[in-house]
Each structure stands twice: as structure tokens, then as C-alpha cells.
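Below sits the subject:

***
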Amino acid sequence: MKRLGHRAIGIDQGDVILFSDFEHDGVMWTGDGPRQTRAHVQFSDAFLDAPSVIVGLSMWDMSNIANARADVTTEDVTAQGFAILFRTWGDSKIARVRVRWQAIGPVEDEEIWSLD
């Protein structure tokens, strides 16, 4: 569990189109077996520490001729950004994917200042 204490809390969020492989016969659309793609996201402002990041599929377009298999997760979360990792396997035919994300963590409190 991440405890945030009495610091100011920031929330950043967005959407990322990870790929649109049906347009150019990319590997997610035409391939078989294990496949993955990764996208880096930079926060609009840095957090004080690595935030908690939640990701979810906000658009998933796939073929109806094969089983739909997907795993979406985060990696390398820092105060400045993180990576979204999308994986599929088997005979899944994934045309395109969009991922929505939200980061929650401690930020600078503009009301607290110090005299140097």
C-alpha cells in the first residue's frame, strides 16, 4: 500500500493509441505467437515520487476469427513517467488498441514554502 501522508496529491491522466496494425498489416494484426508493444508516457508535471498508475483498455478492435487474448500493464514507473506494455499471444488478431491511464501521487504543495 502506498501511503500519501499530508502532502498535496496530484492526478494526471490521458489516452494513448498504442498501435493501429490493421492499416499496414502490422505484427499484431498478421502475426502469431507472443507479441508485444510498448509506449512511453511522460507526465504533464513530475510527481515528487513514483505515483500509482492504473491502465485499462479504452478501445480494443480485434478480429472475430480468433480468440481475443490481451495483457496490459505498466512498467518502469518513475516520478516523470512510465511505460505501457501490451501483450498478446496465440492466434489473436488485434487491429488496434487505445489505453487510458491515470496516475495518482504526491506533488509539490504550492502553499508550503521556505525561506533560504
In short: Residues 10-106 form a domain with the Immunoglobulin-like fold (CATH 2.60.40.2080). The longest helix spans residues 27-30. The chain has one domain: 10-106.
